[in-house]
Amino acid sequence: MSSPAFQELQAQMREFWPTVTLRSIGDIERTVVVVHSISLDVPDHLIPVFPAYEERFLCMVLSLLRAPRSRVIYVTSQPIHPRVLGYYFGLVPELDTPEARARFVSVSLVDGRNEPLSRKLLARPGAIRRVRELVGQPEFAMILPFCMTADEVALAESLGIPIYGSDPNLNWLGSKTGSRRVFAEEGVSHPVGLDVGGAADLPDALRELRERSPGARAAVLKLDQGVSGLGNGLVDLDAAADDLHSAIELEDEELNVEQYLAALDDEGGILEERIEGEVFRSPSVQLRMSPAGQVDIMSTHDQVLGGPHGQTYFGCHFPADQEYAERIAAESLKVGRRLAREGVIGRAAVDFAAVKSDDGWHPYALEINLRCGGTTHPLFALTALTDGAYDPLAGEYRTRLGDIKHYVATDHLDSPAYRSLTPDDLLDVVAERGLGWDAEREAGVVLHMISAIAVAGRIGLTAIGDTLEEARTKYYDVRGAVDEAASAA
Question: The domain 192-273 belongs to what CATH superfamily?
Answer without folding.
Answer: ATP-grasp fold, A domain (3.30.1490.20)
